[in-house]
């Protein structure tokens, strides 16, 4: 039982600091039913989660299965503070109301994965404001400048002459202090957070709270391209609030290699089950596309429902396998003749006219299911089904 | 009138930043009687002032003569904070009661030089505590790490691998913020404070209070040795609370060269008057010792009274010129035969028996006005006048 739990907990992790402590906590849970705390911090400014974030959330769910109380920490304290460049010191980035709205939105999303009865949503402004000015100054006595400058990004910026605001030295201390206040037993985060996660251990020692948290780091999930990390700004993400059809289609678009990575980090299938799928593909008894569809169904069902996931699959099959137009597409109207590139932008099929022209050049644009190649085409009055790539459609009526 | 005031203000200064602003403030005072503020910060842990500190105080007194309201700032906020090495983060260095006691002691000393009706004694804990944790973090957004590391001492320590606590980056910001809160027009300090003094200008600009303080820096006063800076730990100081005889004698002990330096920085004589003294010594109409006695009288009278200063001079003359024993000396008793070196320590004439033995070797020790050279001498029962050097006496009774 303990070994199985440890195997699930260690699955897909990039690094664990003090795994002995984790074993002890689990042992105490199995022996005496004793619970323990696992902390994870979230940014209060970006409540739109994507699958990259759910890698952590699913690990937290595993911990919940084995006795953990999750400390879901929203780092709202720093959101009260202005521009770290110091140019607008009176401007606050987020109001209290906005933070609470974001928190509500977080909860709606994360409780699709986490068990709300074993999750405490906490805001660090609560205890950091109580630190006061003197508590803040005390906090800064616990760490030195040279060691802070050893953090990878600081080191690079300092050496390249890029400005580092002194406030940026405070943020890791605050994150660490959260672990002091919350008396966390374990903290989990991405590998890019290693320095800050270890700060929690350091400060728990400095403040002598009688424990030092273990640190469990998850790898950064690759985006749909399989190369860069999943992020909104790179537009290679699957959002937790994406529509079922989008979600299903995006999973289907990934490479077979990335599929196995997603299975490891995102599926709730056990490692044994995944191994069987791999063997099936290798010995030819399973088609990789079927395995990918199953993953897409699992993920879509998690954030919507089994029925909606199945409907998304049907819709996908209809569009792709039969080259049909989807049953529901957005409709737009133009009151005058319109240039094709502008039409693609207005119908939200291309982000810009220059991208639209590239799409046409590359043969990715169809009108009424016919490929076009005239970038200068003007659309006169009539109705058009516009299509970019395989999955983006719009109906345009020109008056 | 303005020119005379400026001349007095600039006298002995090491550097002035934005002297145009000082001229404007003085002009407004002479034209419209408009007052302005001059800030000076003092350490709450060390209320025993010596003449090194009075260089600043006398400059403040000059400003008071010309319309300034003095902001006598006691930096008690940081005294609330523990050890900057972070080893004892819960220990506070000074209690509120101690800070207030020290402040009382400060007042007793500084109002011998400053006009109390034109002086506001303020404690920065008052407004810095109000900053709270978020105000502190905001403060740290206003400055960057690289520029902080340019401060001479930080630069040296960073390069040599000596630890710098992050809290040490906060102190200059707090000092600067004091100038924001107090809306100081001018701040004065020692040349060693240049970085921190300029921080006041920087932060007044960042917080957009509509003014930037001028900065007036005084040189660091040399101690009695004429080489190292006056300080308690080097034991080359004249304390503001020194007894009249000590004070007078210490001034008389300095070199002629140092005497002129002290005249410039410590005397209330005008520059013209000092010039006349110099000419008198040069043309032989004045003996340097007379000039030094006048300085010793002036300084002793400032912290005690004219009568006590004159009495100290008489006593000094009695001891030195006539080689007599002073009229009042401390008396000690030993209940058994005592080794001379130990006797000198017990009677507070030598700091240690090893120093006492060196004093004897160098012929600096007399018993009953007779020089001795036996380091092993034992004093049996009887009464002894012990003497080390020219000015240190004690009476010892051995039973």
Automatic annotation (TrEMBL), chains A, B:
RNA-binding S4 domain: residues covered: 338-399
GO BP of this protein: tyrosyl-tRNA aminoacylation
Location(s), subcellular: Cytoplasm
Keyword Ligase: yes
Cellular component terms (Gene Ontology): cytosol
Subunit annotation: Homodimer.
Name assigned to this protein: Tyrosine--tRNA ligase
Organism: Sulfurimonas xiamenensis
Gene: tyrS
